Structure formats: structure tokens, C-alpha cells
Amino acid sequence: MNNFIKLPLKLIFLFSIFILMGSETLHKQSDSSETKNTIVILKFKAQPEKGNEAVTELIKLLEKVKHEPHFVNIKLHIDPNDKSNIMLYEEWDDASYYNSEHMGTDHIQEFMSNSSNFLVGPPDISFWNIQNEFN
Fold first, then answer.
1. What is the DSSP letter of 46?
2. CA-to-CA distance for 47 and 50, rounded, in angstroms?
3. Is pLDDT of 32 > 50?
4. Tens digits of per-residue pLDDT, 86-134?
5. CA dihedral in degrees (66, 69, 73, 74; nearest 10)?
6. Which of 98, 94, 97 is nearest to 125 (CA)?
7. CB-side exposure of 8: number of CA atoms within 13 Å?
8. DSSP secondary structure letters along 67-135
């Protein structure tokens, strides 16, 4: 076989290996059965006419929270039919950290003491484990 044909065959072989390795990596990333992260759902109710202030204060808080250890992700949601309903979808890789050190941070403590200015009361908090993930 001449060198002109060998080169494309080598490239095809290398490309095939690259694709197989890439798809295996993607499969592992989407296989949530290996994920041990904890999902925390927080539901807040803003005082009348204070929804924007509540969101602004939450964004300030989240800018600090995202630098904490064990933080994975937080998504802030607003109810399109009632802007005073605010939800946080949080993902943490250590539930015990969340329930202890995280709750004791200065920024969380400060937010909790100031939140009576714009929230009706404390949030409803629930904890979840991922069972399956579909992409």
C-alpha cells in the first residue's frame, strides 16, 4: 500500500478513536447515577411591590455564594405570573457543608437578617437527590 493511502487510513483510525473517546466522556458526564450532588430548592415570597428588590438582593448574595467550596450551580427563577414568587435551584456537592458551614457564612447571616425588609418570611427549603437525568 502506498504512503498516499496509508495516511488517510491512519487519519480515519485516529479520528474514530477520538470520536469513541469523546462519546464515552459525554456519556459519563450525563450519567447522573454517578452524580452524588444534592439539589436544594428554595422558594421565596417577596413583599408586595418588593419583588425587584428581593431579586437584586438575592443576586448580590449569589455573587458571594458562588465562591464557596462545594458550590456547583445555582439557577434563579421568577414566576412569570407572579413576580413575588422566586425560586432558587441550587446544586452542591456536599450536603453537610450546605447545612453547616454555608449557613454560617457572614453573607448568609447578613442576608437572613436583612431579608425581612423585602421578603414575607423565610424560604421554603427542600433537599433532593438526582435519580436520572435526560438530555
1. B
2. 5
3. no
4. 999 999 999 999 999 999 999 999 999 999 999 999 999 999 998 888 9
5. -50
6. 98
7. 4
8. TSTTEEEEEEEE-TT-TTEEEEEEEES-HHHIIIIIHHSHHHHHHHHHGGGTBSSPPEEEEEE------
- How far are the Cα atoms of 33, 43, 101, 116 from residue 121, in angstroms, in the given order? 36, 10, 22, 7
Average pLDDT, the chain: 84
C-alpha cell at 73: 450551580
What is residue 120's predicted lDDT score, i.e. its pLDDT? 98
- Among 58, 90, 88, smallest CA distance to 76 is for 88
Residue 9 binned pLDDT confidence (cut-offs 50, 70, 90):
low
Strands 38-45 and 85-92: antiparallel
Q: What is the pLDDT of residue 30?
A: 45
Cα 13 from Cα 16, distance rounded (Å): 5
Cell of 13: 483510525
pTM for the structure as a whole: 0.73
Tell me if residue 66 falls in helix, strand or coil: coil
Q: How far apart are CA 102 and CA 120, in angstroms?
A: 23
